[in-house]
Amino acid sequence: MSAPKKLKRTVATGTSGNTIKQGLALTIVLDQAGEGDDTFELVGGSEPIVLGAKDAKELVEGAKVLRFQGINANKQYKLIHHRSKGATRVVFLDTRPQDMTNAGKNAIGSKNTFAALPSRVPAKLPDKYYSEQAVDADLVAKSPVLLDLAVEDPLL
Amino acid sequence: MVSHLTQKDYDSAAAVFSRSFRFVEWKLIIASASGSLPFGDKNESPLKAIKNIDREKWIYVFAHANGETYAEVKEEIQISAEGKMAATPFELIEKDGKRSNPVSIGTSLCLPRRIKGFPQVYRFFACRVRLPIAQIKELKKSIATFAPATSLEPGINTSVVEKQGELLVPVVDAVTVMLHLHAAYVAAASDVIDYTVAHDDASKENPRKKVERRRKKQLLASILSGIMDSDPSNTVVQKLKDRQGPVEQFLTHYEAAVQWRVDRRDRLATFLSTWHASAAMKVTEAAFAGSPKAEWVRFLIPWCQAITRLGESPSGRAYLEKIIDDSGHFVHRYVWPQAKLSDDQVQSVRKAGMTVLEAWKAIAEVKILIKRGAAAEIFLSLQLLLQPLKGGAATLSEQAILIHRYNRVNSAIRAAKFIVPDSSDTIHHFASSPRKLGAIVESVNLLFAVAATMDVMKNENASRRDKELAIIGLIGSSLDAASALASLSRNADKLAGVLGFVSGIVDLYLGVTAMNKAFSDGDQDLANGNFLTSVGATFAASAPLMALFALPGGAIVGVIGLGVMAIGFFYKVFSGDSAMERFFEHCTWGLTPAQAGAADWSPTRFEEWKGDKEFDRQLEALLNILCRIEVGYGDSYRHLRYTIGWIPPNSKLVVVYEEGWVNGADSGKVTGEVTLSEKTAVSNKPTLIGGRDGQNVVTLEVIGTGQPNSLTKKKPNATLHVHGMKLPNPELRRSAASGKLVIMFEGAPEVSVPHNGWAKETFF
Fold this sequence. Notes:
The structure holds 2 protein chains of 2 kinds. Chain A has a domain at 10-99: Immunoglobulin-like (Sandwich), CATH 2.60.40. In chain A, 0% of the residues lie in helices and 39% in strands. Chain A has strands at residues 10-13, 19-22, 25-31, 39-43, 49-52, 57-60, 63-69, 77-84, 87-95, 115-117, 124-126, 132-134. Chain A starts with 9 loop residues before the first strand and ends in a 22-residue tail after the last strand. The N and C termini of chain B lie far apart (94 Å). Chain B is α+β, with helices and mostly antiparallel strands. The interface between A and B is large, with 79 and 109 residues.
């Protein structure tokens, strides 16, 4: 891993109009520690910068941060994720530092992305006049719980 | 997952990586272009909605920005049954011919959940074979139509699952989802059967005794409701606790409980049919087709399993119809062939074994009943399938059989029948499938019998009576449909499946437009009722299949409805009857249920109207009030007239007529049984000609042939009329008739009316 370079502080405007203070570092946030063996390579400066999980610093509880120091606002960088030797993935292609963040983008809503469907007849049902009434004991019977079914999927 | 990160942290990060996670699979998914969803049961842990990956698979990771649907492929990961993963280098994923072996990456991984500030939406697809490049490209366009959007953001996130601190990210394997949707659908379909039909293979939640009690109670409530509706004086309702409310509520709740189950079954059938038609299945099918030939059966076998029993639901039938119409669909090569099989097809069919035959049956059901396929086509396809399964030996033969002589002169229904002398086992892959080839063949013979009857029903030249007789003929007497069904039940491991199959046929049968048209000259309910009645008449003795026709769609409503109409008619005649008031007072919903007392119309004392036999005893007593028999005659003593208060569906009249003559050699006795439907009376003796005179009168003409076990040819009445009556023949010494009605209700013992012997009348 190369030593961080000394940089001038600059101010740049991102594509979405956000103002970004430049010069100290670009950061990557890792939920928890990330994969232990993984490394992240920032390519675009005079030398690639490679940081691993061991370089991560505590950001807040449950999250760590990798700081890529020595960023030049006039250059473009690409980020590569190395999972193991030979297993790489380009996270983003050459991008100006000021275009790397987009403040205010909300996450997708994921609170209701699972449907829970009723698996038994309600204990009360409407009568002829649409008034909810308890069901006679002779009519009560559980229906199968779909998630409890033993499903055959033979290895063929 | 709890987020402690601030917006500022995100703003300043070029990328945010998720926690490490492990891949698992979703079991159940609703595919929809507007947003696919995994699903499970209410009040159950989402952990039960996922399963571990239990075999080698290829996982494809796609991502797109929020609000978009076109997704780029990001990863191709091979995963082993032990969870070890290897990833194809990114730049090689779409390089045809250069896709090197993937590189090991361990058992967990993390993915960027935000890149340059943009939250990432992931879609995960898993396949049991490596996808060709064309299918990866196809998924870029279509994955959003079936794979749920997955977010790796912290916070409340139901698109992933957390188990004891471990993050689990579910993927979508089309075959896994298909099999789970099918199992869910079958369970729901069986639940409809199990709730409404008392059968020996009942579920734990619906043991036979409990279902029988429920059905008897419903039957009793229906009859009481009919009587109350037709009592303008409101006398009997006063004898019930809280009047008619509890009875009506019970009936309303019964219908709602059944309908809830039917709705669930049909909803799951829609999910399954939609999944079958989804891009997930098309891509998977193409991937297997593009793999080495030996791989194809790994798709074909589960697919065949996952179309079984689809015919029980409207959307399932619609899907099957669609693939039959699609000549390019693989079903025409491997399940419904019409030409000699290629070596590749032979191998696939042989390996698929019983499962492909089960799928063939599902197709045959639609082909015969909806598409009206010719018997030759059906025969050919089965013959072709059996050749590889039976080592090249053709074991099937076909014959046209006489289904039933439905009028006495020259009309008959003919149907094809397949005969499979060798019903030996063939390979099966699913424990729930029937093991015997005979079960498949008998199913198809039943379909032919039903289809042949439908043809008569559609014949505009056939009279309504012919149609009625044809329907009775379908299931009545020595018809093959009955034996087909009996054989089907014997050979099947799961009776609910057999019952479902038959109910699907009936549902379809009663729902066919042409059938409705055929009935347009009469009363639709009545026509249905006739069908159901005759169905019940044959099956009730051997199996509880009558109750099948109590399934929604309809039929118990039809049967009971008929009964109620008849009761209404009856009650107007006998209103003010104190027996009925006493019955209401002591019945389950009465003012004094099971209070000590007795009456000659009840075989048991009122205090015995409780416990296990509560509804048997009440039904028996009520039927003895309702179905009172009066024996009389018309023009001649041999023109018998049995006036019956109410003729329930599924009943028969046992009759005896005897004459004594001066010459003892002329004396004789005739006995017989008359099967009663709403408008017909069919005798089991050629010397007893049945007929109906209105709703409540059964007429029987006794023919004297002079043969042994018959009456003399001499007429019992002279031709001379006095006050409109024919005088007795001077040689006649005695003329008497008796009768009793035998009523069969599902799950209930036979009821005889009168309960203590015979209704008798001496004419002379």
